[in-house]
């Protein structure tokens, strides 16, 4: 029996165990700061697989002083990072398999059909917060490793499995793993790409613009300067900048995407009294960073836009608006389209799924930015979850896709690391 | 010595006592819910003047069930309303002198040069929250009554002095006084008109419009519908409505006013995450009501505007925005330009100040709307405070103006009520 058949056969036998593992993981609500119990489930699985466990609490000085550490969290105790290694026999290429254990909050419970932490199965889907983003993907990774071991296949290169915290809040977990010395010849991150392959990842950063107007009584509003009106002028300018930046994106993987690197205005807060002219407005948003752009370049562009408005606008010349970068930032990432990792993954996808994969640019950042930019590890993002279900109510994953992803990833690992 | 000379002479002697009274009043921070101590100072003064005191806690069923009761406050204990009457000898016209004891919050303390509740005197001004709006005006009223009594002038008509709570929150105090049976042949309210005379008062009401968009990840913002963008369309439409309504205002007293009845957008709240497309926006504002318009008409106009947008706009046809009237409402008020009260006040102003008064339309509502619309009492607004200092940091009143207003009001009372 050839390798592919053995892997397929093992995975078929492990299907119900894989589903159980996902349910168990979903039943541990691993929101930020509470990742410990879900992480324990994964550690237990890695021990069973005989992997070398490296479990540690992140947050040392190296991490906190790193220029790309953007977290507002300082206490990481009780929520360890995990790296579990299956050493190869030597002479092969190594691979990082990276998943994050943290999930975003469940949002409004009324919007959920089932308890978000139940792991209920219906019509071939497992439901719950984190199924798609990305505990289902993590189970695909673990099943892939398990299948290789159970099939008795010995690899030359190392498999470095990572289950990290903090991805949803800017990636301090993966950055900590990179700073701890983990790098490889390639990496797969099974974020929810809906079985598409993303070699390019958009970066992003958050910004806050504070606009100052002049207060007045609403009955004589003409004596004031409305910060709300000013905020809308700023938003128009931001939309103009977005348009220019997107027109400049030439990469072919963006051909079908209406807006490759959006600037999203996510929050506007202005005023505190219906009958007063508001004297302050706060605009918060997400600034998309092109895969081939650096974060420094993106920051410079945004700063220049704000300075231009401050210089040109009569009111802003007196009361300049202020720009602040706050919260998380995600580094962009690029894998060249002729990179062997992309070729190996695509070839195995085609062999197993029976059609050519869709290769696209991602509309969001992943921890891949840290692996590639800081850790010099080439990254491709490919996973079983449905992109639009991430962060949504009634999040689910299709079990068949989770199993297919496991198979594609297992065969990719074998081809990448080499049998020996 | 004629009446005017006697009144002038008495007031000159009472100047320093009047300043002390104002300082004492300012030193009681009579923000909403804490009006009791300032009110006690006024009651004490009224007792000294020998007035008949009617002090009661408002909030009975008649008030709470009244269609024009818009308060969100249900417990008024410890903060009584005051009416203090100087009965006339009979056969004359009665006059209500109405002031409110509540003040708006002091705002940001950093913006104040002095403690807002110190009552510091500098360069002929008393500083502090409520000096202009309108404890200074109330002191003018009390000085006017005191001067008439001290000058030994006996009046035919009743003087009905009112010191009410809740003006800044919609006028429940004055409404309660009206429902308790207080009305008169005329009323003067010394709100801060900067010594101008306001026979017309703009009404107003608060509105809240809730706009629903569609959420999406900021990286694929084109898959969502931004509630911030929708809110901006709504605000543009509101500005258009404001323009049309103001073009229709013909009253000559609005000739010099750039925007007779503004619609002020005072608050916009939208979104809760920088990298999500916001699915809800809340717009709160103040809708100016023309002096000759009814509140019902104004409500109908605003409702129609919202319904028109909901019917015409493709997105709003699916997800209609919602309109809510909330919080306080202030009735407009009109005194005909040939009303004898306006003539008497103007004549006495000219005699004492030495020039013709400026007669204008007010840019805001006062409790006069209740006195005239519900209590059938003709109202004129005239007071010593500076309009633009109301609700502002470093609020102050000029002592000379407070004394001049007292004199003009005293002579107006004498002429209106008749000596007998």
In short:
Two copies of one chain form a homodimer. Chain A is of the alpha+beta class and 420 residues long. Helices cover 36% and strands 20% of the residues of chain A.
Can you walk me through this structure?
Chain A has 420 residues and is of the alpha+beta class. Chain A folds into two domains: 3-201 and 332-417, Zn peptidases (Aminopeptidase, 3-Layer(aba) Sandwich), CATH 3.40.630; 203-330, Alpha-Beta Plaits, CATH 3.30.70.360. Chain A has helices at 3-26, 36-48, 61-64, 131-150, 172-179, 227-247, 295-312, 314-318, 340-353, 368-373, 399-417, and strands spanning 52-56, 81-86, 95-100, 121-122, 125-127, 159-164, 187-189, 197-201, 203-212, 263-270, 280-289, 322-330, 333-334, 359-362, 379-382, 396-398. In chain A, a hairpin with a 2-residue loop joins strand 4 and strand 5. In chain A, helix 1 (3-26) runs antiparallel to helix 2, helix 1 crosses helix 4 (131-150) and helix 1 crosses helix 11. The relative contact order of chain A is 0.20. The model of chain A has no long low-confidence stretch (mean pLDDT 95). The interface between A and B is large, with 49 and 50 residues. Strand 10 of chain A pairs antiparallel with strand 10 of chain B, so a sheet runs across the interface.
């Amino acid at each position: 029996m050839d390798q592919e058949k053995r892997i397929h056969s093992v995975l078929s036998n492990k299907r119900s165990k894989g589903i159980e593992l996902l349910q168990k993981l979903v039943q541990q609500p691993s929101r930020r700061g509470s990742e410990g119990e879900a992480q324990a489930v994964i550690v237990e699985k890695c021990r069973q697989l005989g992997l070398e466990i490296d479990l540690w609490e992140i947050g040392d000085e190296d991490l906190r002083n790193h220029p790309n550490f953007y977290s507002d969290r300082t206490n990481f105790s009780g929520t360890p990072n995990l790296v579990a290694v299956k050493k190869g026999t030597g002479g092969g290429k190594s691979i990082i398999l990276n998943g994050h254990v943290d999930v975003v909050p469940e949002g409004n419970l009324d919007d959920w059909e089932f308890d978000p932490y139940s792991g209920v199965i219906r019509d071939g889907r497992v439901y719950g917060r984190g199924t798609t983003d990305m505990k289902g993907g993590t189970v695909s990774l673990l099943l892939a490793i398990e299948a290789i071991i159970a099939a008795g296949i010995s690899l030359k290169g190392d498999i470095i499995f990572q289950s990290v915290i903090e991805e949803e809040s800017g990636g301090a977990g993966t950055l900590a793993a990179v700073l701890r010395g983990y790098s490889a010849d390639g990496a797969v991150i099974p974020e929810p790409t809906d079985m598409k392959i993303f070699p390019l990842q958009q970066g992003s950063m958050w910004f806050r613009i504070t606009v100052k107007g002049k207060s007045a009584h609403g009955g004589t509003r003409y004596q004031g300067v409305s910060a709300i009106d000013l905020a809308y002028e700023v938003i128009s300018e931001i939309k103009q900048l977005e348009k220019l930046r997107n027109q400049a994106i030439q990469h072919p993987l963006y051909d079908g995407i209406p807006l490759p690197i959006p600037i999203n205005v996510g929050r506007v807060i202005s005023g505190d009294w219906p009958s007063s002219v508001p004297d302050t407005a706060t605009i918060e948003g997400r600034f998309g960073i092109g895969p081939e752009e650096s974060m420094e370049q993106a920051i410079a562009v945004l700063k220049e836009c704000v300075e231009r408005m401050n210089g040109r606008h009569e009111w802003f010349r007196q009361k300049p608006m202020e720009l602040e970068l706050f919260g998380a930032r995600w580094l962009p990432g690029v894998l060249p389209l002729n990179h062997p990792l992309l070729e190996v993954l695509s070839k195995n996808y085609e062999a197993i799924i029976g059609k050519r994969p869709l290769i696209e640019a991602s509309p969001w950042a992943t921890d891949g930015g840290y692996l590639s930019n800081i850790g010099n590890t080439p990254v491709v993002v490919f996973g079983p979850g449905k992109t639009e279900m991430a962060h949504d109510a009634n999040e689910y994953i299709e079990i068949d896709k989770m199993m297919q992803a496991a198979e594609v990833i297992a065969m990719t690992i074998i081809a990448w690391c080499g049998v020996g």
